[in-house]
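Standup, Tuesday
Yesterday: got the pipeline producing structure tokens again.
Today: sanity-check two examples.
Blockers: none.

Example 1:
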Amino acid sequence: MRLALRGIAGTLALLSLATADATSRRTPGLRADGDPELPARLSETGLYEPERPGVVRAENRAFSPQYPLWSDGALKRRWIHLPPGTRIDASRPDDWDFPVGTRFWKQFSFGGRKVETRMLWKVAKARWLAASYAWNDDQTDAVLAPEAGVRGVVEVAPGRRHSIPSRADCAACHGTPGRPLGFAALQLSPDRDPNAIHGEPLSSEMLTLETLLREGRLEGAPPTLLSDPPRIRASSPRTRAALGYLAANCGGCHNKSGEISANVPSLAYADVMAGADAVAESLVGRATRFQVPGVPEGASVVVDPRAPAQSALLARMRSRRPSSQMPPLGTVLGDPQALEALAEWIDKDLAHQATASAAPPPPN
């Protein structure tokens, strides 16, 4: 991968000065809106040992969702901190309620260099703060990015640059009140999908449902959580992997919460687990307002099993025009592995199902 930084040292110096100046004008420890002050540097967020720069504190636990979010090919590492003596309310498997004080961190690296680390911090019962930290050139620490983000910090392909998101972009993806997206029952299930697109191997220290239950960090969880672990129960391995990818990358917006009104069925974790094949079939031939290039006016559908490449689903995943790309935020590159896997799924699974359903019944 080609990697090019754009004057990041100077940018970080300006960010550091701006952060220090803004902080000096506010009540110590509190923002103007009453929320806790965001630390000026990543090293001050509690991620690392105080006297050992870069060494993650033992109480901050690594994890890896089985269906990762596509982020322009970034190598990511993730950690969670749960305050001592607290537990996660897991009574809703797809929407866990975390204790106040919980923190998440996600580190993004491109070309072997750390570029940014994002943090979610639960500061009240229904309030999360989001922050992004931009790494310095010598990779010793990262500085709090401004609320508007930082554009074009690293080139990830010729002419394409990764940007550190604004806090408004964070809120657009994470919703209200800013919930975590990749730490839930399905994502941490021990019944891990071997065909998950961009699936990451688990290391021995990573949290799973098993470790959370064994350590008493979940309450209200269904008693069958481990005997019958969460799984997308689809009729084929391709459908399972495809819906897992769509749930992780699209279900945050395309769900029943009312956050988006597009003509697409809910792709939330709970819905794809409750009826995977029904969700898959509901995409086939479903009319969409998006006009696929080359398709007659008004004839575009979400999934066209006769011509997978002309499916609106794939057309919008391929596009990186702001008016048409999906997901709409967070990427400047299409996901070639996912596009190939989903095209194969449409061609080999959904096309077969569509043909079978259209066939006349056998004679009596």
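Example 2:
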Amino acid sequence: MKMKKRSFNSIHPRLALLLVAGVMAFSALGAVPLVRANLSRQIEKLQQENKKNEAVQYKLEIQATDFSDQINKLQQQMAALENQIQTNRARSNALEKEITKAEAELDKQKQLLGQSIKAMYLEGQITTIEMLASSRNLSEFVDKQQYRDAVKDKIKLTLDKITRLKLQLNGQKEEVENLIKEQRAAQEKLDEQRAEQNRLLGLNVQERADLDVKIQKNAERITELQAQQVLANARLFGGKLPPGVPGGGGYPWGDAVCVHPGAADPPCGQYDWGYPEAGIYDKWGYGYRNCTSYVAWKIKQRTGRMISGLGDAKSWPTTVGDRVDVDYGQGARVGDAAVITAGTYGHVMYVEAVEGDTAYVSDYNVGGDGYYRAARPIKQAGLYFIHF
């Protein structure tokens, strides 16, 4: 019996009987709907958990990037402080040398001052009359007087120089003390920044590691459940699937590679095959080497129609809208998309031939391996047939 997608909400009693018969025929082939539904729920639950964990991990990675920026800024500040400390040390050492030199000059000037004072004292004990009387002539008297005046001037100059040296020494010593204070403060700040850098480097590492473990365990469990689902799918074809052909069926993207480094291929994680320059989706928006991509390509080859935006295989019968006819359980035609809605993603196949209640279908990735499988028989009961 033929039905439109828009008539799904109202099922005729006769159609209901056909549906029951279809399900019974489907079960007779060895499929176990409850097992498949249970597997689907488990896979969906694990995938949702992984999505949440990956979202948290993504936030942590962004946070880690922010930390890296902060660390880079801290490193630049620390480099500037290191330069400042080195400059202060060099300046401090130079000032210490200048202070030593100035102190030696101060000692020398003190000795000269002592000699000058002593000479001035001795000369000061002689009166002008005595100096004149002891002089052989007036010229010698004048020389002695000039000598006394020179000693006086020298004493004054020496005192002035000593005063300047003392001021210079005090200023230099104060500058050294300030430099030492700055150096200590810079060193303390440097130590704080290094501690902050170490804290940032260690932040969220364990948290991200824990998430990696959870994601990995979930991925392993998903792979295990997908393997079980492949076995359940195989029951539709008499209990086993024929060997797949890599890149077979003329499909142009059968050479797409697994985009997850180190992942087993098959099944390549979540069936993510692709190309570095093109990503993992074909021009219709379906994943390379997936059943949806293959069927969309086959329909384009046969009819020229672009079948895009229908989502996972299980959603095709409902998202295709009123553009085409949809039959459930019978009515297969050559060129149809035959859809199994059970499972996490469902599965879509291309109808190559029809004989009675049997459709002969070809597909990609029914075994979770991204491989092509040529036409083989499958009962129409339990399948949706979309007529493009």
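Quick observation on example 2: Residues 2-30+240-387 form a domain with the endopeptidase fold (from Nostoc punctiforme) fold (CATH 3.90.1720.10). The helical segments are 13-28, 33-124, 128-134, 138-202, 205-234, 268-271, 291-303, 316-319.
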